[in-house]
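Changelog entry

Holo records now carry the ligand SMILES as an explicit input line rather than a separate metadata file. Below, a converted record for adenosine-5'-triphosphate, shown in the new format.
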Amino acid sequence: MPQAEPLLKVEGLQAWYGESHVLHGVGIEVRQGEVVTLLGRNGAGKTTTLRAIMGLVAKRQGSVRFEGQELIGARSDRIARAGIALCPEERGIFASLDVTENLLLPPVVRPGGMDIEAIYTLFPNLKERARSPGTKLSGGEQQMLAIARILRTGAPLLMLDEPTEGLAPVIVQQIGRTIREIKARGITVLLVEQNFRFAQTVADRHYVMEHGQVVDAVSNQELAGSMDRLHAYLGV
Amino acid sequence: MLEDLLFQLELGLPQVVLGLVNGAFYALLSLGLAVIFGMLNVINFAHGAQFMMGAFVAWMLLNYGGIGYWPALILAPLIVGAFGVVLERTMISRLYKLDHLYGLLLTFGMALIIEGLFRNEFGSSGMPYSPPEILSGPPIDLGFMFLPKYRLWVVVAALVMSLTTWLVIEKTRLGAYLRAATENAALVQAFGVNVPRMVTLTYAAGVALAAFAGVLAAPIYSVNPQMGSSLIIVVFAVVVIGGMGSILGSVVTGFGLGLVEGLTKVVYPEASSTVIFVIMAIVLLARPAGLFGRA
Ligand SMILES: Nc1ncnc2c1ncn2[C@@H]1O[C@H](COP(=O)(O)OP(=O)(O)OP(=O)(O)O)[C@@H](O)[C@H]1O
Ligand SMILES: [Mg+2]
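Structure line, unchanged by the conversion:
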């Protein structure tokens, strides 16, 4: 059966930090409406992959095609305008902006994003804290803010870098619900996770990275049968 | 003894008020420096030269084009700001990846070149520029002194401009972009904001503020190529005292130090030209980040 071109197609992606060669030909595909995870140990190159797609790593090679458009040489602001939004690992909440200003910061790149009311319904905490400086929120609230912020933009592809890292189980569950809600709205998600159990509850497919390369791919259905293999990769 | 001092102060009150006029220039110039530093991380040593250019452009508009004070107050900052765009695009932007020191050296060099060119063309003696008619005429009677209308206007204009700049940065969408980009420019750009263009326009805005101050200064000081370099040394001291990059800090410190200088003229005139540097030394020792700076 002939398939339409995936929403995001990354091929032979290489990236360097200065002299150090970090990605050695990463290849992944994300189809419209999917939630796909990148799993892998610390230092495997997951964050670098997202940053390279986003145009945040200065030296990169290979191909990043989004909606059929080549973006490997584009500046990060153009990549954002093309419809890719990043929620960074360190969250990137601005201390000199209050919660509302943080929320309104990323420009809308396409119609159809969530409006501020819908966001406040999904994250009531943010409404209560609307006037607080962004970094005065708890870790969980900051993570909500970081996700909410890009939901406004209407970007059809969201890249979330370890949104559950260091958060309490209730918050992790809330983030899980949020990701399912995002998926229900037809938004595509590329998710970096180390929390493999969590990834299992939200994703359609998983890629495993090691030493700057993709070394395995499994669908969520195959997951149960591939446990031993994955445990070996992830060292859990 | 105390009565003596009070009497002296009363006699000296005009000096203190005039100190506010100097303070207006300190505030405007250190505000422009703060705006530029916040965004570019460059200490714009060409600021004094750009102030001088503002005054000269107003003078040239009048003498070559017959364009008067009020249009010049808008046109000169635009023209000098456009010059700032060219400087930032062709030279300063190449240095962002290097240490701050290079930006400082580059802008210092530019200041010397600009001043040299103007001295070559216009000589170093000052040229007069008269205040607009509505602000000339008899001074205003404040009860304890007569204040020339034009000086009052300078204080008001500087206050309004400072307040507007502060409002734009703290209360608007554009200001939120500026504050965010000061914290993490790469992320703001990755959200789809054209940060390089924003940096260029911020530099231009800071330069335009200097030129605006230059036009304000033209009727007070004679228009001459050195008018910026003598003032800018004091302004850098003001910036150090207020705290590099703080918008509110630069405005408050600018006006405050103008007052302190005026007060010193009354109490101990010999120290009036050095008092700001003495304060700078004390602040540097006690609070190196400046009064309003975040360490
Ligand atoms: N700014 C940087 N400069 C130099 N090397 C870096 C930089 N950031 C990451 N690296 C290196 O690149 C490699 C990949 O790092 P990356 O952050 O992409 O891993 P990761 O899979 O996201 O790990 P983690 O699970 O810890 O977040 C690591 O060896 C790391 O040390
Ligand atoms: Mg990472």
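Spot-checked after migration. Residues 164 and 172 of chain A are 6 Å apart (CA to CA). The interface with chain B takes residues 54-56, 75-77, 79-81, 85-86, 88, 92, 94-97, 101, 104-107, 109, 150, 153 of chain A (CB under 8 Å).
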